[in-house]
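Predict the 3D structure for this chain.
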Amino acid sequence: MIQVIVQIKTKKMKNIVLILSVFLSFSCKAQSTISLEQAYQYSKTSDGIPTTVTYVKDINNKLDQFVGTWKGSYNGKNYEFQFIKKINFGEHSIKWDEIVGRFIIKDNTGTVQYNSISEVDDSKTRFRGIKLQNRAYIMSFVGNYDCLESGNVFIETRKNNPNEMILFYSQDKDGLLNPAKCPNFSSFVPLLPQEKIVLTKQ
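Done. Predicted structure below.
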């Protein structure tokens, strides 16, 4: 009789251990992937994104609104942006769903002033997503770094017209300026406008 009771208890313990193992396995998998919205909330905390996270996923398809070709004009220049969505992308321990950008700038005569459209390597466009912040998406852009041309690009589609996008560039001017490499720094004009421009989806 005692042996039967021991066998029953042992079987119950094995079942409990099995259930706990399955639960912990699901918990770990659930924690390893978070949404872009969750990542933004974590970014506002002192601890940041938990170390258990390995993938920040566009679960709610918020990035899809930015994908495509967009055109606009500003200060005598014509801009064409191409945004693509990359899945599980990046070289670091945390992979992201993110937008990668390319663009071409022409003056009014059609002369090309900048062109990254032909760059086939997504990791070399120097124009990549950072995070989703409410309705806006923030990207990092690095142009002529010798002239401290680097900063954040903010893009946001209009609520009442998703085929129009607002874009503006905030230059951070981080780094040490070497006058020999950028002698015209005082008159240097960044590639991207630092005021809001309206782009239309093509």
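The chain is about 20% helix and 40% strand.
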